[in-house]
Design brief:
The complex is a heterodimer. Chain A is mainly beta. In chain A, 4% of the residues lie in helices and 49% in strands. Chain A contains 1 helix and 11 strands. Chain B is built from no helices and 12 strands. In chain B, strands 2, 5, 6, 10, 11 and 12 form a 6-stranded mixed β-sheet that branches. A 4-stranded antiparallel β-sheet of chain B has the order 3-9-8-7, with no helix packed on it. The relative contact order of chain B is 0.34. The chains are: A mainly beta, B mainly beta.
Chain lengths: 116, 115
């Protein structure tokens, strides 16, 4: 049973560019959440997608946007990259709320984004 | 507002010692869930334990045990007879149904087990 799959694993971008990160959820899960983890910090919630719509959003600017496809996979897009966007981006899949929060997430290994 | 505090930034223990990781949380809600996750160098967050706010019974699961006390808003995690493979960063997290079940993570505790 495949877990959460994220691609690419590493990425280097130049300040001002745009980036797209991809996530395939664990089989049986239909909700995808994205988290940003800066070096030495805990993950911070970006947003959550369920039924192809953004359901919850954390304190992130509009430069961060996403999408969920009918097969439940998801993309995270970041425009106008800043040096401060350098981080590990984690995708987590779960059952939809409220069940999802009760049983927790399954996380992928993340995409390490470096902005230079 | 929800907040999770892990005061211990780094801990080092010698193999086979017991180690306790501290977690203090803040929430105004009566229904919430608490978790511990482990993050090895590979980056993936691995689920360890879960507790809901209505169940303060403390349990042992293999080498893992936890102490949940609502009176002090603490959810501490203990590894018994630590092993080198336990070396990782450990995160305590709070899930709140009132905010769409998003997770609030602490800043993590880096555990090093010395052989």
């Amino acid at each position: 049973d495949a877990g959460v799959t994220q691609s690419p694993t590493h990425l280097i971008k130049t300040r001002g560019q745009q980036v797209t990160l991809r996530c395939s959820p664990k089989s049986g899960h239909d909700t995808v959440s994205w988290y940003q983890q800066a070096l030495g910090q805990g993950p911070q919630f970006i947003f959550q997608y369920y039924e192809e719509e953004e359901r919850q959003r954390g304190n992130f600017p509009d430069r961060f946007s996403g999408h969920q496809f009918p097969n439940y996979s998801s993309e995270l897009n970041v425009n106008a990259l800043l040096l401060g966007d350098s981080a590990l981006y984690l995708c987590a899949s779960s059952f939809p709320p409220p069940t999802g929060g009760r049983y927790g997430y399954t996380f992928g290994s993340g995409t390490r984004l470096t902005v230079v | 507002a929800q907040k999770v505090t892990q005061a211990q930034t780094e801990i080092s223990v010698v193999e086979k010692e017991d180690v306790t990781l501290d977690c203090v949380y803040e929430t105004r809600d009566t229904t919430y869930y608490l978790f511990w996750y482990k993050q090895p160098p590979s980056g993936e967050l691995v689920f360890l334990i879960r507790r809901n706010s209505f169940d303060e019974q403390n349990e042992i699961s293999g080498r893992y045990s936890w102490n949940f006390q609502k009176s002090t808003s603490s959810f501490n995690f203990t590894i018994t007879a630590s092993q080198v493979v336990d070396s990782a960063v450990y995160f305590c997290a709070l899930s709140d149904p009132n905010t769409g079940n998003q997770f609030y993570f602490g800043t993590g505790t880096s555990l090093t087990v010395i052989p």
